[in-house]
Every structure is written in C-alpha cells, then in structure tokens.
Specification:
The complex is a heterodimer of chains A (about 475) and B (about 425).
Chain A (H helix, E strand, L loop, with lengths): L55 H12 L11 E6 L9 H14 L12 E6 L10 H15 L1 H17 L6 H5 L1 H8 L2 H6 L4 H9 L12 H4 L11 H11 L4 H17 L4 E6 L11 H17 L3 H5 L2 E7 L3 H12 L1 H4 L11 E4 L4 H14 L15 H10 L4 H17 L8 H6 L22 H6 L4
Parallel strand pairs in A: 1-4, 1-5, 2-3, 3-4
Chain B lengths: L14 H12 L3 H14 L8 E2 L9 H20 L3 E3 L4 E3 L1 H11 L3 H14 L3 H11 L8 E4 L16 H23 L6 H13 L16 H20 L6 H14 L2 E4 L7 E6 L1 E4 L7 E6 L5 E5 L3 H20 L7 E2 H12 L3 H16 L6 E5 L11 E2 L4 E3 L2 E3 L1 E5 L7
Antiparallel strand pairs in B: 1-12, 2-3, 4-6, 5-6, 7-9, 8-9, 10-15, 11-15, 13-14
Helix pairs in contact in B: 1-2, 1-3, 1-4, 4-5, 11-12, 11-13
The chains are: A alpha/beta (about 475), B alpha+beta (about 425).
Amino acid sequence: MSTLLRRPSDGGQFEARGRFERFNLEENPFPSDPFVNKDSTDKRVNGEIYEVEIRRPEYEKIEENFLRHPQADLNHIRLGYLVDTSFVGRGNGKSAFLVNLQQNINKEYCLDISDGHNKCFALLVTPEAGGRTKTFPSFVDQMFDAILRLRIIDECLAILRLEAITKLYPRTDLTEDLKNEKSLRERLRSPEWFWERDFDLSAISETVASNEFLQAVPPTFPVLRGRPSLIKPFETEGDFANYYVQDLKKGKERYDFLFSHLVRFFQAAGFNGAYVLVDDFERIPDFQSARQKRDFALELRSCLFDGTFTNAKIGFYNMILVLHAGVQRLIEEAWALSGMENRAPISPRVDSSHVIAFEKLSENHASLLLKKYLSEYRIAPVGSDPLSPFTNDAVRLIGEMSEYNASKILKTAYELLEKAASLENQAIIDRDFVLANKGGIEITTEIARDNKETEPEDLMKKARKAED
Amino acid sequence: MSIMRIIKPAFTLLEYFYVLLKSVERSAERRDVFELFKVLKHQYGLGESKYKTVTRDRKELTSAQENRYLYTFDRVIDEAREYGLLKETRESLILTPAGVKIIRDFDNQDFDKFHQQLFSLMEKKGAVFRNLIASIYNVQSHPPGLLIFPIYSPRLLNFERAEIKKTSHLIDYSWALVKKLEADLMKHLNFDRQLKKRNDELLVNLTRAGFLSEDPSMPFDPKKYNAINKRIRDYWINYFLRDIYGYSSSWSAFERWVYRGKQIGILHATEFLPHFHGKIVYPTSVVIEKTLSSDFREIYAYRDGMKLFVHRPSWDRIQNKFVKSLVDGYFDLRRSNQSYFISLTSLRELVCFKLKISERLFESYLERAYRLNLANRLAVRISLEVDKLPEETKAAYLTREPVMVDGRHRNIIAIDVTKGVNR
C-alpha cells in the first residue's frame, strides 16, 4: 500500500491503560509539563485542577481589597500588583491562580462576591512572549483580544436587547426563556429568533442606541452606526472586532475606543467595572528600553488615572499586574519618572492593600496539591489515605527538593509515579524511593553562609605552595 | 624601574591589531587599507579610549578626527611590524604567516588564542608584562599583589559643587583628600606617609598656573573647576605611580599596558571595585620558576627559566569557591540595595578581586553555575536578567563590558539561598 494512503495503526491518542491501576489511578494525574495553558483541553494543565486552599490567603486579600470594594466608590484601587515573593522563578502557581480567579469572578460577574455592589467581569491578559507586546498600543490590542475571547461584547449585546424587549413589549412573557439563560443568550444573538417572535429589530436597535450611556460615544461606534439607515444592521461581536481592526488607527483612536467608548457600552449593559488580570507582566519590560518603559508607564497612567478617558474618570478597569520577583527593579525607575509610583507604588514603604504577596508554598500545601491531582484520577474512592501511593515523608522530601515550587513538585511527582509504574513490584512511593530516584547531582558545597569574610586570594602564596 | 620603555603604545584595545591585519588582508595599498581600517574600527567600536564606544553609527569625520585616526593607524602598523605581523614595502603592506594566524584565530572566535599570540609576541620584545607583574608583587600591599590609585571627588568628601566658590573651599577639599590618601596608604600598603609637603607643593603649582587665587578668600574661576579637579587627581595618581610604586613611565603608558594585560587575562584593572574609590590594578597571574598548583597554567617561558603562569583553576576545583564568592558578593552588595536584583558588573568586580580571576573566566564560570541552576543542580537559585543594555543608556563608552550568559547580555543578578544554606 502506498505511504500516501497508510495511516498509523493507532488512530487516536494512545493511552497506556492499566499502568497505574495498582495505585488506584486511571492514569498519571500529574502533568509532565506543568505550566498552565488555559486553552488546553487537558485538565492537568489548563488550570482546572485547582486546590483552593493553597492560595486561600492571597484570594481573600484580593476579594477584600478589590472584589468586595464597591466600584461606586471612586477611591477603589485601580492598579494593584500580585508579587511573587518566593523567588524561585516561574511555576509557583500564579497562572493557575489567575485562571481560577477569573472563573470565580465571571461565574456571577462578581455580584455574589460583592453582595450585589459590583457587576464586573474579569479579563485575563497574557503579554506575548519574545517582546511582541512591548509597546502600550500592542498591550491595548492584547486587552481587546481578551475582551473578544471572553465574548463579553456578545453578552452585553444580549443584555441590551433583552432590556429593550422588556421595555418595548412589557406584556411579553419571557419567564420560560429566562429559565434557560444559556439558550436565551444564543437566541438573542440570532436575528431569526427576533423574526420568529415578531419583535421589531429596528425598534430594538433604536432603543439600544438611545441608552443614556451611549449618547457620549461617536456615531461610528458599532451599535450606533446603523441608526440613520432604514434597515438596521444586526450588530455582532464580529462587527466590533472588524471596527477595531479596520476602522481604528493604532494609538489614540484605539485608546479612546477601549478606555472610553467600550466603557460606556459596558456601563449601558449594566456592568460597573472590570478586572484586568495581567499575567507574566515581566514579558513587557523585559524587552523594553528605558524610554519605552517610561512611555508605557505614562500611557498606562493616563488611561487608568488622569487622562481624558471615561475610564480614568470612573476607574472602570481595575488592573492587577502579576510580577515575578525582581520585576520591580526593572520598572521602578520608569514608575518613578512617570508618576505611577505616586499613584500605585510598586515598592511601597508600608504594607499596602494594593500589593498582594504571592507566597511560597509550605509542606502542607505540597501535600494538598498532590492530593487534589490524585483525587481527580482515582478509580475507586480512597478512605484514610488520600496521598497513596505517596507517603507523607516522600511528599515532604519532594517539596524540599522542589523548593516548594508548585510546578517542580508536580513535575517531580509525575516522574516518580512514572518510574514506580515501570517497576513491577513498586506499590508505594516512600522517602527511600524518592531518594533513590533523585535526578542529577547536587552541588551542596560549603556555601553555608557563615559570617566569615573570604580573604582575597594571595596568588603568589598559592603558586608557591605545594600542591593541595 | 625601566619597564614600559620599549614601546610606548598609542592605543589600548588589542582588537586594533585584528582590524589592521584584516584590512591588509583585503587590500595591500596603504591608502585603501586605511579606508577599510576606519570602517572596521567603527564596526568593532574601537575608539582612542581604553573603552569601546557604544554607538556604532558612522558619521562624517572631521579633518581633525581623520588625522587622529591616521595617527592611530600608523601606530598600529608600527607595532604590528615590530611584532612581525606584517611587512611594509614602499606603498604596500603584506601579511606575514603570524599575521594570517592572528586573523584566523579571531575569525574563528578563538579569542584566547588571539590574545595569547599577541601576548607572546609582545613579551618577546621586552618582557613588559613580566616586569609589570613582578613589580606589582614587590609592593607590600594588603592583600599582596595590588596597586591602588585612590580618587575622591569633592562630592565624595561632602563638598557640594554649589558650595565650592572660593579658593579656600578647594584648599579645604585638598586637605580632606590628603587625609583620605594617607589613610588609604596605611590601610592598603601599610605606609605611614605624611603628604602635607606634597599638598603644599600641589597648591603652589595650582596657584602659579593661575587656577587658584593667592588670597584664599577670593573666588576662583568656576569655568576652571573641572580642570582644577583633574589637576588634583592627576597629581596624586602620578604621585602614587612614581613616588610610591617607583615607576618611571607616564601614567598613560602604564595604563595602556595594564589594560592590555586585562584583555589578555593576566592582569585586572578597574575603577569600579565596590567599596573602593579609585583605580586598582592586580595581577591574575604570577611570574615564578615553577608551581605545583594545578590552578595555574603556563603561558610563557622566559630565557632565564622563569615562567608566566596565569591563574585559571578548573571548574571542578573552583566551583564551590566560585559559588560562595558569588553569594557572599551578592549579599555584600544587597546591603546597600533594597531590591533583589543588584548590578552584575559590580558583583563581577568583587568575585574577580576575591578569586583573582579574569573577567572572561568569571563569565564562563557564571554561565556554568547558571546552567547548573537551570538544571536544578545548584544549592542556590540564580536569576540573571537584563534591565538596561549599554546602547539604551546615554553613555558614549562601554566603561563596563556587559556579561554575556546563555547567549544574552545580562546586567542584573539575584540569588536565593533559602535552600540548604544557613544565612
């Protein structure tokens, strides 16, 4: 048979079933590459398996200082930082934390968390690697991209149309439709449904366009531009995307759109704020020159605090920049020069509510983390020993070896479990097993930090001395 | 001391030899060689200073610049001829086999070989480096093998520019400086010298030259402020060079040889050693008959049986010490710095000084330590980042060469020792 037509014998994904059965596991629950990819379908890496308890202190601080604070109070925090203090580089669980924080906020648009004070959505913005998101305009593009990904514009259009229907057709009974919000959302996105129900789309569009918040946006704005024509277009999120890409120039026009016009649009749909979670913020200053850093900080300040934008006036977007340790130094000069340091100090002298420390994990956390992953892949429920096949001692050692860095803990657990599965008689993973399978050599060195100052080398003495 | 009499070099950077030879390789005619030389000189950032230039943009040369370039060009030819790297007939320049080899080494990025070759040729002509290194070890310094040239600006001694208006202010500064110099002499060289007479002499010189007024209460010409400071600095540097260390050469010739030694890796000179104000020079090599220590590598044998050994411990032998110095230096510098990250070039100075190794060796060992760290095989965590590249600053010269690790320029470092180390 021709190689053109031949296919591999295993059609789909091959899963070595049964290898982990003796550990009461469907498969290896740990990710081999433990970095969050929120677009992945594998729950091991998309942030879905998440142990809330581990990051409870951080979450509570964000809830108290950001999410529960009424947006209506103009003094709410508009820019905060989530700073990694563990100082062991990436993989400490920040991205997983953010994915879950975003889901928590968006579940009921923060209404549940804030006792009805705030109706806010959360965006997750991840600057592109390799320096592609180096300038503020490209950062704004990323933000808009996050808005599109969330489909929040579609949601707002649905809300506005639904409100228009209730206003124009007060006698129409929507009780049945409202029972299933998901399908109602879909229907509100389709003009056919309006025709079927005999709703006048033109009148609905006009009612939407006459919303008080939309009176300050330019007539070219998507929901307004069809106003003068006889046949009103049925605007969708795609029209917003096209408008942004094709009609608006980079820079001022797009800033106005994102920080003024869209803010009005979101307000029209009943939102009073949004949380912009910027993951891996260091990817921006890492590639910036000093001037670019300062310009970026100035633009950010203008859009968030004191520019002519609607957002600067009301503080609609609340940004949380996620920084790994050491980023402060990269941007502190730019922050000082641009005046950002006065608005939202990045190295505050006192404990400030806008800076949330992302602490290093502890021994207990390591055990919680492993339990959570294991529980997701159990064949039969376990009783008293949720950590099996790992022993407590082994988990402690894994934690120490991994410097209590979440991704390293998961990676080590993955490798140890793989190793144990390959050995026929290995039923448990204990301290000895971990020690025996510890990879690489470690330089333990005598770098014990005594206070003794090392004397500078005396080369002549050394050269004359007999070989040591 | 009769060192550095053989050739008074007109330039410091050894890459000038490559630039010249490469130009000769492309053309033999002197005029054409000069044109190519100018292009390559720019390309490699070679200026007249001991530091490389940062901007590589080519501008139209003024006639004064053209003449200066031509002067440098002629001097490079003189020295290259002296070392047998090229021959000159009437109007053409011809490469010798030694010259061709030098080009190949450089083109193949074997800079150690390139420097080693040049070093051997220079040393054959007069053993300048041998004499220089031996003379440094003759100074009874603490630690041994060290020359210091302290420099304290008025500002460092708490004399603010805005308050220095009268002659008496500068006189006060000069006496405060004398105190510091006497203290440094005592601390580093164990010399109990009274510099009063010398300072009197300096003040008389400055007055005679019209820099200071006879009447201390009179103001001095503010336009001459920088010139006066330079005079004071040069006076004391020359005092250290000639009177303390006994060199007869000029400061510029001394500095050029020292910085050439630094490029070769047998000497280190810096103005940026933390906690010290001024320049220091120390060898990273020794001249002795033999050594049993495997941390040294012989790079030159003299006729009288003496040899020059460069201090180049293998990674296996130095790794613990290297990491410890790195960590010690990091915490030393962290004391004056709030943030996790500190300047990598300052840390490099401390480590090179402590271990007496060259900057090149530091770079290569830092890379090894960093790779071990990435592989999670190091007891400490090292983070190397870039905050500002030289070309992003306003500086015209690369006063401190950036450190290249893992294919990227790095200039800040942070170390975490929370694991396995008692702090």
